[in-house]
Amino acid sequence: MAKRVSVDKWLFTVTLLLVFIGLVMVFSASAVMAKERFGSPYGFLVRQMAWAAAGILAMVAIMNIDYRNFRRPPIVFTLLGITSLLLIAVFLFRDSHNTHRWIKFGGLSFQPSEVAKPALILYLAYFLESRWQQITDVKNVLIPAVAPTLLFALLIVKEPDLGTAIACVAISTAILYVAGMNMKYLWYGFVASLLPLYFLIVRVPWRWARVQAFIDPFKDPQGKGFHIIQSMIAVSTGGLTGLGLMEGKQKLFYLPEPHTDFIFAVTAEELGLWGSLLVVTLFGIFLYRGIRTALRTEDMFGKFLATGITAMVVVQALFNISVVLAMMPAKGIPLPFISYGGTSLFITLASVGVLLNVTQQAD
Prior knowledge:
Strand content: under 5%
Number of domains: 1
Structural class: mainly alpha
Number of strands: 2
Largest sheet: 2 strands, antiparallel
Helix content: 55-70%
Order of helices and strands: HHHEEHHHHHHHHH
Strand order of the largest sheet: 1-2
């Protein structure tokens, strides 16, 4: 079968639609807050538009670069090394809200943990390309494959950011599964993680409070359960068609971070069930086209890249939407393409550029 000569138009269009929806919802969710903080309702929107423009330019540029150029060891290990240094350097900067997640220079800020995800995807694709048939070799293949993931996860947990650390592990697991990893090792890893998760969740008061609020938010409606209840109110009051763009009430100092972590709740309130289903459907199409690309790509490096990038987007979307719908304890993971956040948007769009190039090479 002849090679494709153009990118996957469905994937390209879905990505642009999600970015557009994101810009609209960031403005709607943040206008009041931006007016109070910056003196202009467009404060957050302008910044997000700048990052979106830079990200789209990066996506278009990268999708025209043969993805096989990225399999070079200097590129793979330089990115891995720089990411490791950034994840360590973040602790040298002043904390924000008792966390060390950002490297800040003047008015600019950068989140190293966002780089960790594509760095791990590139490393695993490179490392497993010629070793996937020996994936049962624990000492020489499996352990070296998962070592960077465990290192990055430990550093990210230390920030602390357990949600992103779990996302990194989930992305790596998806690639390892496609590479043919025996499922028993997944169970071994799950069992081995139970004790660390116990200390990271149950023994950390503020995380355990989130779990308790998730289990029964109405037990403390004005305290621990307040944010979850407000999210559910926003989703339920939207009805089928929503209250209308800019007409939502829960974003007015009820929902925490309405333009970031809980932007899907604002979307449900203002655009209703149909608007929410549109967003979910677009992510569903992204998942389908990403999996289709991975299945149709004979080159193992491209197959692993496609798997990892697709998992990176969809896993984060699943986590974010699940939190908003009270199906999972709060994790602080943004909704890809839609939540406010320059680092996340730029890195995700650049990664999609790689995926789009893979679609050109797929059979």
